[in-house]
Amino acid sequence: MSQWVFNLDNYSHDKAFELAPQGDKTKDYKVRIVEVSKEERRGMILIKISLSPLEDENRRFYRYLKIDESRPEETDQAFGAFYYSFGIPAGDLCIYDWEGKVGLIREAPAPENSLYPFTFNFIPRERPGKFDRIASAIPLKGVRRCKGATNKQRKRR
């Protein structure tokens, strides 16, 4: 079981939101989290987040958040950017409670050698300060049941 705990000291707000400058080839979207799932690969836990723009419910953006205990700084940076964009309390791993949350992303052209034509970054709601801390480790398997999760969602874990 993962014992990763979000550490605010490993998170840099300025580094998280190095966005592509606004221009003709970038577009900002207000998006809703429509589905969240969890899987394990090569000893890491991956949380897949499916996002849908509010103005185009048929389009989807996907992002994997990786819990890699061998790289806590990178894990904290990725989760911090996500938490800030969607207003989710820092350290909250009750992933099924994330569904329905609304945040902001900026889509931009991908680097030249990328497999995909575009990439996106999370846009912050606010600067640090009101960021909640959760003191203890939150297990990702079995024991804990999240408030608000339906029976169907609990079975997916």
Briefly characterize the structure.
The protein is built from three helices and five strands, in the order αβββαββα. By secondary structure, the chain is an alpha+beta fold.
Q: Which class best fits the helix and strand makeup?
A: alpha+beta
Q: Which ranges are low-confidence, i.e. pLDDT below 50, for 5 or more consecutive residues?
A: 127-145, 149-157
Order of the strands making up the biggest sheet: 3-2-1-4-5
Query: In this structure, how is the largest beta sheet organized?
Result: 5 strands, antiparallel
- Topology, number of strands: 5
Rg calculated over all Cα atoms: 16 Å
Figure out the total of helices: 3
**Overall pLDDT metric:** 76
Looking at the structure, what is the overall shape?
globular
| Residue fraction in strands | 25-35%
